Amino acid sequence: MSVEAKPAVASPCISVCVMDAASGYCTGCLRTLDEIASWSVLDDDARRAIVAALPGRRASTPTGEAGAH
Q1: Residue 57 near residue 25 (C-beta atoms within 8 A)
Q2: Are 48 and 41 in contact (CB under 8 A)?
Q3: Distances from the Cα of 4 to the Cαs of 1, 7, 45, 67, in angstroms?
Q4: Using only C-alpha atoms, what is the Rg of the chain?
Q5: 18 contacts 9 by C-beta, under 8 angstroms
Q6: What distances in angstroms separate CA 15 from CA 1, 26, 61, one per listed residue?
Q7: Is residue 68 pLDDT above 50, yes or no?
Q8: How many of the other CB atoms lie within 10 Å of CB of 19?
């Protein structure tokens, strides 16, 4: 029985790199500066946790979506 590796977690970056001062999130990907800066060294579980938080962040932004500022 082989153990299948989970696919690597892709960055949610959409190349709209503008930080929103009010929320502290990037208006493109909804990550914080710390999350963006550490992405390359995070393990996949930590990356999945960040990606899982994005829909809630999107719902709490004034426009309800990323990149609409």
Answers
A1: yes
A2: no
A3: 9, 9, 16, 35
A4: 14
A5: no
A6: 41, 10, 19
A7: no
A8: 15
* Each residue's pLDDT tens digit, 23-50: 999 999 999 999 999 999 999 999 999 9
Structure token digits, residue 50: 């960040």
According to DSSP H, which parts of the chain are helical? Answer: 33-38, 44-60
In this prediction the pTM is 0.79
More confident residue, 62 or 66: 62
> How is the chain split among helix, strand and coil, in percent rounded to 5?
40, 5, 60
Q: Hunting for tokens 């579980």 — which residue is that? A: 45
